[in-house]
Amino acid sequence: MFADRVLSGMRPTGSLHLGHYHGVLKNWVQMQNEYECLFFVADWHALTTHYDTPQLIEQSVWDMVVDWLAAGVNPARATLFIQSRVPEHAELHLLLSMITPLGWLERVPTYKDQQEKLVEKDLSTYGFLGYPLLQSADILIYRATQVPVGEDQVPHIEFTREIARRFNHIYGREAGFEEKAEAAVKKLGGKKAKLYHELRIRFQEQGDDAALESAKSLLDEQQSLSHGDRERLFGFLEGGGKMILSEPRAMLTAASKMPGLDGQKMSKSYNNTLTLREDEASVSKKIRTMPTDPARIRRTDVGNPDKCPVWQLHQVYSSEQTKQWAMQGCKSAGIGCIECKQPVIDAVLAEQRPMRERAQLYLDDPALVRNIIADGCEKARKLASETMREVREAMGISYT
Ligand code: TRP
Ligand code: SF4
C-alpha cells in the first residue's frame, strides 16, 4: 500500500551468538541498504516466555543493541527502538484482541509446539496465547510491507494478514463509501482516473491479478492523495471498504545453518555457542577443545571430515583451497586436528575483530547507545501514533 518498509524484532533473552549473526543480523545489515528498516527489541515478547526472569531481560536489552551495532546495523539507516517504549503497540494489541477469535490463536502452530518444548515453564497464560497478536500489532502499527522471518514464524505473518483483513472488513465501512471513493478517483485526474477504473474492472470482473498490481502501483505513485483517499482507493479496488491496516508479506530468511561447537545447530540451549563478541582467548580455547572425528584417536589415525564438527565450520569459514587442504590432510593423516583447527580459529577471530572494535566504541560511551535508542523510539512513536489515530477513529473511540 505504501513504499516498502521492513520490520523485525528480536527477543532479549540472552547474549547473541554467531548463529544469530549468520542467520539474522547479516541479513538486517544488508536490508538496511535496500529498504526503510525498523528493528526493535521485543522485550514484551520476551516476557511472554520469560516472565519469571526479568533480570535476564533487563540485562539483555542493552547488550543486544550493542551486538546489533557491533554487527554493522547502522542507526543512520535503520530505526532502532525498544517495544515497551512505544506503548501504542499495547493499545493496538488490546483493540485487535476485541476482534480476534480465540480459535485463531489456539491454532497457531507455535502455541502448542512451544508449550510442549518448554515443559519446564508454565505457558498456559493469557500473554503467551496472545503473543502472535502482539506480533501482529507490532507489524500493523508501522504498516510494514515486509517482515523477515524464519520458517517457524510464517504462520504468524499469515495470521497477521487475516487480522488486518478482518479489521478492515469490520471497521473499514463508512457511510457513503462508494461516493467518497468515486470522488477520490476523480481527484486522480482524467487519464489516471480512467486507467484506475479500467484496471479495477479488469480485476473485479475477470480476476486479473496483474491489473490489480498495476492499479496499486498507480496509487503508490500518487504523491498528493490524502491518507483517507488513499485507503479508500486501495479498498475500492478489492472490495467494499477502506483499507486501514495493510497486509504484510513474509520475507523468508533461510534457516541458519551455522553449526555449533558440537556439530548440532548453534543454540544457547545446546551450550555450543561462540558469542558475538567472545574474547579471543576464549574463542581459541573453545575451538581447540572441540570434539573431532571420534575415530581419529591418535595423530597417525586417518579421519573422516564428514564425521567431524570442525569440518562443518570449515564449510562456513574456509576457502576452497583451505578446505582441500583440510580434507586431504585429514583423510591421509597428513595434518593433526590442532593444525586443522587453526584456520577456523583465525577466520572466526577475523570476523569478530571489526565487531569487537565497533562495540568498544559504544561500551566506552554508553550514552551513545541510549541516544540511538531514544531517537529511534521517538521516530517509531510518531509512525505508531499516526496509525493509532486512524484505528481509534475507525473504531469510533476518537471522540473528536
Ligand atoms: N516473534 C519473534 C521471535 O520470537 C520476534 C518478533 C516480535 C517479531 N515481533 C515481531 C519478528 C515482529 C518480526 C516482526 O523471534
Ligand atoms: Fe576434524 Fe580436521 Fe581432525 Fe579431520 S583433521 S578430524 S576434519 S579436525
Explain how this protein is built.
With 400 residues, the chain is mainly alpha-helical. It folds into three domains: 5-172 and 248-256 and 366-395, 3-Layer(aba) Sandwich (Rossmann fold); 177-237, no CATH class; 277-363, Tyrosyl-Transfer RNA Synthetase. Helices cover 59% and strands 6% of the residues. The chain is built from 18 helices and five strands. Helix 1 (18-31) links the parallel strand 1 and strand 2 (36-41). Helix 2 (43-50) packs across helix 3 (54-71), helix 3 crosses helix 17 and helix 4 (88-97) packs across helix 8 (131-140). It is elongated. The model has no long low-confidence stretch (mean pLDDT 94). The site of iron/sulfur cluster (SF4) has 14 residues, from helix 15, helix 16 and helix 17. Tryptophan (TRP) binds at residues 7-9, 11, 42, 45, 135, 138-139, 147, 149, 153.
